[in-house]
Design goal:
Layout: H1 2-10, E1 16-19, H2 25-34, E2 39-42, H3 46-53, H4 64-69, E3 74-77, E4 88-91, H5 106-118, E5 124-127, H6 135-144, H7 152-161, H8 173-204, H9 208-215, H10 239-249, H11 255-281, E6 290-294, H12 309-319, E7 323-327, E8 333-336, E9 339-342, H13 347-353, E10 356-359, H14 368-374, E11 378-380
Parallel strand pairs: 1-2, 1-4, 2-3, 4-5, 6-7, 6-10, 10-11
Antiparallel strand pairs: 8-9
Helix pairs in contact: 5-6, 8-10, 8-11, 11-12
The structure holds nicotinamide-adenine-dinucleotide (NAD).
């Protein structure tokens, strides 16, 4: 049976289901479909399914034209029954944290239970969602395991090799889960270190950016990270908590993760204090002042505001009585804690009207010389100096 499946994969005849059609799932759909595989996308969000079947993309990295080009071998559906005709199913559902910052695996469980209804022999199931080490074995395998679970690595590697440039098989699913968490934790810890370095340099009266540039000239042993307003996105603020949660169940306290989380989460507060100081030095109180937040996406040149530090900065500024507006060429509207805000339509007017501008996202499209010249006061979290 394994050989039949491998042959179908090599001939690009294997039908691939991608479950969860978001930032991860949709590019994966396109990667397999562009290589000629028949692909079925499954998502519980009927609006996304309808948009995809009209050839409309909602993910910035995937232009609609690419979806239209794969029409012949891709369709989306909300029904897991489509799995009966699939040879492989790749799970890309969300893995958020709950209110107590513990893993919320209910989407994974829902996906697993739905797959279990339609699983059939000779079928590969892959978990792509980021999650704690042990999830595949402890959570999914009991729901899904067939007699040939041991052949999965070989078949999974063969499938991905047809669509992905480099495949790196490791010895177990637990190792693979840990690899992803190490990557993200490495970034979270190093960003926290450089954020704390920025605070220390500020207290010492030293330019942190000059320090980093000079340190980065060392030919080995130093990897450049840059400070900023905090961390955002679906991965870095959340994924390390999956790891620390798992370790807590083993009576181990993951101290680096804890500390990095604290430092990165505190950065918006640090920058709001800087806004307050800047206004103060101009003889103004933060309360009642007009503060323009420039860029709200969590990193430059994207439209994603998930976990963006801009959200905390806006909230903190509002909490201190500032009149907050924002400008972002990629984010038309913003809803946070039940309150909505729209981007300022005219940047020049918004700059002229603001008592202070805080630069949060350094989108490439911005003309920094012009912005720095027009703004009355600037607090720059990204070092945009031209
Ligand atoms: N965003 C990234 O850059 C990134 C990178 C690497 C890994 N990841 C991981 O990949 C996973 C998915 O992340 P994402 O950013 O694509 O999330 P997303 O929210 O953009 O997309 C997830 C999709 O899953 C759908 N969904 C939810 N429950 C479902 C169910 N039971 N059945 C079918 N569909 C369901 C949602 O409607 C949504 O469309 C997460 O575990 C994340 O940590 C994300």
């Amino acid at each position: 049976m394994k050989e039949t499946l491998l042959e179908k994969i090599r001939d690009h005849r294997a039908t691939v289901a991608v479950i969860g059609l978001g930032y991860v799932g949709l590019p994966l759909v396109v990667a397999f479909a562009e290589r000629g595989f028949p692909v079925i996308g499954i998502d519980v969000d009927a609006q996304k399914v309808a948009a995809l079947n009209r050839g409309e993309s909602y993910v910035q990295d995937i232009p609609s034209a690419r979806l239209q080009a794969i029409r012949a071998n891709f369709r989306a559906t909300a029904s897991y029954a489509a799995l009966t005709e699939c040879d492989a199913a790749i799970i890309c559902v969300p893995t958020p944290l709950n209110k107590t910052r513990d893993p919320d695996v209910r989407y994974l469980i829902a996906a697993g239970e739905s797959i279990a209804q339609y699983i059939h022999p000779d079928m590969l199931i892959v978990l792509e969602s980021t999650t704690y080490p042990g999830t595949t074995e402890e959570l999914l395998l009991p729901m899904l395991a067939g007699p040939a679970a041991l052949a999965c690595r070989e078949v999974a590697a063969a499938l991905y090799a047809e669509a992905i440039e480099q495949v790196v098989p490791v010895s177990s699913t637990q190792t693979a889960e840990m690899v992803k968490l190490l990557e993200n934790t490495f970034r979270a810890v190093n960003i926290a270190l450089v954020n704390e370095t920025a605070i220390m340099c500020d207290k010492l009266g030293v330019d942190v950016w000059e320090v980093i540039e000079a340190a980065a000239t060392k030919p080995y042993g130093f990897m450049k990270f840059t400070p900023g307003p905090g961390v955002g996105g679906h991965c870095i603020p959340l994924d390390p908590h999956y790891l620390s949660w798992k370790l807590k169940t083993l009576n181990y306290n993951a101290r680096f993760i804890q500390l990095a989380g604290e430092i990165n989460t505190d950065m918006p507060r640090y920058w709001v204090d800087k806004v307050q100081d800047a206004l103060n030095s101009a003889g103004k109180a933060l309360k009642g002042s007009r503060v323009l937040v420039l860029g709200v996406a969590y990193k430059k040149d994207i439209d994603d505001v998930r976990e963006s530090p801009a959200l905390d900065i806006i909230e903190l500024l509002r909490g201190k009585g500032a009149q907050v507006s924002y400008h972002d060429p990629y984010v038309r509207t913003l809803t946070h804690n039940g309150r909505g805000l729209s981007t300022e339509p005219d940047l020049d007017q918004a700059l002229a009207a603001a008592d202070c501008v805080i630069i949060v996202t350094d989108h490439s499209i911005y003309d920094w010389a012009n912005i720095l010249q027009q703004a009355a006061l600037v607090v720059d979290t990204r070092n945009v100096r031209p």
